[in-house]
# Entry
Amino acid sequence: MAGTLSAGDGRRAARLLAPAYLWLTLAVFLPLSAMLFFSFLTAAPFGDKPVEATLSNYRAFFETSTYALLLWKSIKLGLWVTGACILIGYPCALVLAKQIRGRAREALFLLVILPFWSNSLVRIFSWAIVLRGNGVLDRALDAVWPGDVRLALMFTPAAVVIGLVHSYLPYVILTSYLALQAIDDDIVEAARSLGARRLTILWRLVLPLSLPGLLAGAVLVFVPVVGSFMEPRILGGRFGTYYGTVIEDQFVAVFNWPLGAALSFILLAVVLLILGVSSPVLRRGMQ
Amino acid sequence: MAEVSVRGVTKRFGEMTALDDVSLDFVNGGFFALLGPSGSGKTTLLRVIAGFLFPDAGEVRIAGQPVERVPVEKREIGMMFQSYALFPNLSVAENVGFGLRTRKVPRAEERRRVGEALELVQLEGLGERKPKALSGGQRQRVALARAIVTNPKVLLLDEPLSALDKSLRVDMQIELKRIQREVGITTIFVTHDQEEALTLADRIGILREGRLVQAGPPREVYNAPVDAFTARFLGEANILPDILPEGARVALPSGMRAAAVRPEALRLTAEQPEDTDNILPGRLVQRVFAGSMATCVVDVAGVTWKVIDRDRDLPQLSDDAAVWLSWDTADTLPIAPG
Amino acid sequence: MNALRIAGLIWLGLVLVFLYAPILVMAAMSFNASPFYQLPFDFSTRWYEDLASNTAIRTAATRSVLIALAVTVIATALGTSAALALFRYDFPGKRILQVLLFPPIAIPWLITGTAMLIFFFAIGVGRGTPAVLIGHVALALPYVIVVVNARLVSFDRTLEEAARALGANPWTVTRRVTLPWIAPGVVAGALFAFAVSFDQFVVSYFLAKPGDSTLPVLIYTSIRKGFTPEINAVSTLIIVGSMALMLVVARFFSFGGHR
# Structure
């Protein structure tokens, strides 16, 4: 019955689908189109100023290196955080999926992804309490290793990375875990029966077979991190200027909406590029 | 000369004793079937021999070397899994060559041996395919080629044919037997299908609740089961009741206390047979027609007996008719009581 | 047990410490009398008492809960019916509709939020609670559809066909056969919708009117002004609440933990 519907079914399908998709159109797709339109205007069309079409907002990005450098800084931040999430999260998922069994696994898995569902702003705030000068971490370190050891992590790029890794680590663990769990234990046993050592099994079988899951997790981390602004604001202090914070400023402080729209759109283009490049691998992993 | 030898092996999982003091020898070049119902410990025994499990007590030797603490990857065994466990990300040739690669065999030799192995299982020219692009029977052959290409000392098969449908399974049984003969490798395989075990193996071992009940050549085990369980498990068996019904005449060989009779050894007649040592009166419950053969279900003093014979050799009787069962004393199978 | 396995368990343990330590520190500090998180620890419930009398936080919290409840109702109803249609009918363009669910999830909220701000201003909705509500529903919808659909995948289509063969009209089929089956998925979807809205900061931040904000926005502006222990206390409450909520979701919707 693919592709064919009776008239009655067609009406029913439309009635069921229309509310959700009209809502999405109104609240997501039209706004994105409006933003594209806005990014070509000289000013927001709400005031008295005359409004003209212009490319100057995009020119601002390409003529001065400021924005491009900030975007690069944000992309670097994304790479750092994604890399750290993979290095920390993948082994963790491996232990969960292939080493722990039964109820303990279910409980530990839930424990790992639970923070992921709690408010990320609050979790970033909790790091501010831990990392602040003379805060808990400094005290704890002092107790273990007395002397004048100061980490002074608060308001550094390292603090931003730590906070973001904390926010997004469960994504990588979740997607890697699901991919790893789908690998049949027989495959590992077969490889062992053929004389393969654990490292060989990991490198030639487990890693390639779970790569789509790992990559999905990496994309899910990288994309929002490049657009992050709240985390750098709270944890980064005067190092906390990133591409996301500049966009935020255009909308809540400087009120240069057209420039903000253009910068947002450039970010969107980068995001779509990344999603597009990774989608063949991701789709292969879905099958 | 035993290639694989198991001595007093015991394996427990918590409270459950999966293997209880099992001793068995597997002769060089032999084809050995481990048979038993689910939970009998047959798969556990195979995994102990493979090295996936270490026994709690006892000794396992492969080619004379004690290996009970050697992990699977160092045992030089070949194993075939019920699910085949082909590596989905690798091609057929890479799958077959996997064990050679881990043994650091030079690439040229790897190519040659992979080619030979694929030829042996009649899959020449499919080396570049991915496992996903193969049929069930072809995957099976790849799994077999992968397991034997490294020239292991022993080939272990875990229910190797159970995932195939019936007609393909019979083809593969013949094929498996041919390849095993050709390679001459000591083979141990686990199955719950008694017919498969009787067809393929030159020795079988029957396990029940973690204990080895009986081992020997298939014909011997079939014709001389040690107890009622084995008699029933290997084909059907009618167990002689302790108290015989009125009119019965049974000549038990001297010293035999319990006995069974195979359904195909029984004769069914309407009149009381004269010149036979063993007769039992009964009532015909049902006659089941199955092509050339037929099965008659007979009630003997409340116990159900089965008679299998050629359909045309059975008398035409209505259900509920009084009948007589008779057999030759030579067909009486001695079994351990209980 | 070999060294590698032990190392694996230690690694997992360290990750759990990393994930939970800051949250526990924050919770502990909310019971510390010092307003500047000074040690030694001096147990006090004064910040929770202050919280009870802090009207700004209380109104923001009430607004957040009300918005989240409204979002839950709307997104669950709309999302469930869309999931049903996508499952039940086959029509040209269905793939496109399914793909269209991903932008709201995949595009960074910074972009979606600022785009909504621009558009809502352009059409006269402006900033404020209605704008926040519209935005949250749009963000929650794809989650509801995906979660309900995950449950529908295990639904035996022939049950619907059998009911129709017995003369039930489509609405009766839905009410008596389909909905009872997908109920756990719908409940899980509803809880997701609530969580997405209640925890939502970025989109609310751009759409809420200053002085008329949701709880996360209020927390953000307070943090940026400086440390306030009441925020610490309310944050602790939020995190305990949302984790409890997700434990409930996990009961309805187990994430491949079996086997």
